[in-house]
Design goal:
This protein is mainly alpha-helical. The chain has 2 domains: about 35 residues; about 400 residues, Ammonium transporter AmtB like domains (Ammonium transporter fold), CATH 1.10.3430. The protein has 15 helices and no strands. The longest helix is centred in the C-terminal third of the chain and has 31 residues.
Length: about 450
């Protein structure tokens, strides 16, 4: 009997020791509100509010590609090539999703220096438990799906530069290889655990750079690769000699609206929580887009006499792309300044640079995404403030004079620019060999890719 009583007392004591105290419960609640790691009983438990926000954000980022980008690009090409653009966006969504499951997520977010390993290959161990390296309260499988949407839209942006003339098979093969050569290394360098350029969350980073939502990872990689690819591919038939007008500005405008809405998931979702940093990114995104739209329209009114719907759409997307790397690091006024720079710089890139150098960037992927993403990444280093994001290293936000962050931004951006350009040149010739050419025949280009490549016809309103 005495032994039974002693055992019962021990069990009761052990149970009491495992029950969180009121102070511990309060600490966990405070950690949830502040989006910091839980102290005791809630360790390893996903927070419903933060989890919900990231699931919604993941859906919004997918919405940017399907149907946002598809409609935006589809409206800008000629009727006979609409389905080809839609097919490329949809095909890339499926292809990248499968690669992401097999090894893409692991190569980006497993621990490593230049590149992650295969710890998460086939999503092994990626479940509903939070990975506190990336989010204290968000399930890792939700974080994985959220990041997959970024991986999907990045190669889809390249489609805009080579529209109406590249084989479907060559587009998919090039983009599939490009993910391994450019996107996965860049995403790991900037965002991954131990990534050499991950300056906010990796104290041992070789280059202490920042990229809140993908100015370098998404817009620079796709934009600079798009420029090289469209030059190697050559111009469309009739480019520079005859008009090649968009067939549906209604579809383009509709796609622009979808992109703008989806961009809230892109930027505010990158806080990986519904917290104050997400709120700041949401506000910064809105104002930069509005200013970019207005400035592009002003440029057209002054220099051409009329404000076009295409110009307003381009300016809004430029404002969104340019603020992306800075959205969670700058004040609202900093974001508005970025919108001004975005409007002017991308307008002149699309209207003057393309004419001056004669390259056929069909839908201005380089002019908007490469120019905007590069300038936005540098401006993030100039305008970042600890008031917008307390995670910033205080040594990096002393203002322009004595500030080293903008230098780190230039180094990181320059390295990724070189990687994107060199990899694109190599991959172009690899794909050309494997596919027996990357460009459709002159006859197919003249009659349209829709019927010849996909056996279907259709056009947007």
């Amino acid at each position: 009997m005495a032994c039974f009583v002693a055992a019962a007392l021990c069990a009761t004591t052990a149970f009491a020791q495992n029950v969180p105290t009121p102070e511990q419960r309060l600490a966990d609640l405070e950690a949830y509100v502040k989006n910091t790691a839980p102290a005791t009983s809630l360790a390893g438990v996903a927070g419903p509010g933060h989890n919900t926000w990231l699931m919604v954000s993941a859906a919004l980022v997918l919405f940017m590609t399907l149907p946002g980008l598809a409609l935006f690009y589809g409206g800008l090409v000629r009727k006979r090539n609409v389905l080809s653009v839609l097919a490329q966006c949809l095909g890339l969504t499926a292809l990248v999703s499968l690669i992401w499951w097999a090894c893409g997520y692991s190569l980006c977010f497993a621990k490593g220096g230049l590149l992650g390993g295969f710890d998460y290959a086939f999503l092994r161990g990626v479940d509903s438990t939070p990975n506190v390296t990336y989010g204290a309260w968000v399930s890792e499988n939700v974080f994985c799906m959220y990041q997959m949407m970024f991986a999907i839209i990045t190669p889809a942006l390249i489609v805009g530069a080579i529209a109406e003339r590249m084989k479907y098979s060559a587009v998919l093969l090039f983009c599939g290889l490009w993910m391994f050569a450019v996107y996965f290394p860049t995403a790991h360098l900037m965002w991954g655990d131990g990534g050499w350029f991950n300056g906010v969350w990796n104290p041992e980073a070789k280059v202490k750079s920042i990229d809140f939502a993908g100015g370098i990872v998404v817009h620079m990689t796709s934009g600079w690769s798009a420029l090289v690819l469209c030059i190697l591919l050559g111009k469309r038939r009739g480019f520079g000699r005859e008009p090649l007008p968009p067939h549906s500005m209604v579809a383009c405008m509709t796609g622009t609206g979808m992109l703008w809405v989806g961009w809230y998931g892109f930027n505010a979702g990158s806080a990986v929580a519904s917290d104050a940093i997400a709120a700041n990114a949401f506000t910064a995104t809105t104002m930069s887009a509005a200013v970019g739209c207005a400035v592009w329209g002003l440029c057209e009114r002054v220099l051409r006499g009329k404000i076009s719907v295409l110009g307003l759409c381009s300016g809004a997307v430029a404002g969104l792309a340019t603020v992306t790397p800075a959205s969670g690091f700058v004040s609202v006024n900093g974001a508005m300044l970025i919108g001004v720079v975005a409007g002017f710089s991308t307008y002149f890139a699309c209207s003057t640079l393309k004419t001056r150098f004669g390259y056929d960037d069909s839908l201005d992927t380089f002019g908007i995404h490469a120019v905007g993403g590069t300038l936005g990444s540098i401006l993030a280093g100039v305008l970042a403030t600890g008031k917008a994001n307390p995670n910033l290293n205080a040594d990096h936000i002393k203002g322009f004079v004595g500030n080293t962050l903008w230098v780190q931004q230039i180094i990181a951006a320059g390295a990724i620019l070189v990687l994107s350009v060199v990899a694109t040149v190599v991959l172009y010739f690899v794909v050309k060999f494997l596919c027996g050419g990357v460009r459709v025949s002159a006859e197919i280009e003249a009659t349209g890719l829709d019927l010849n490549e996909h056996g279907e016809e259709g056009y947007l309103i």
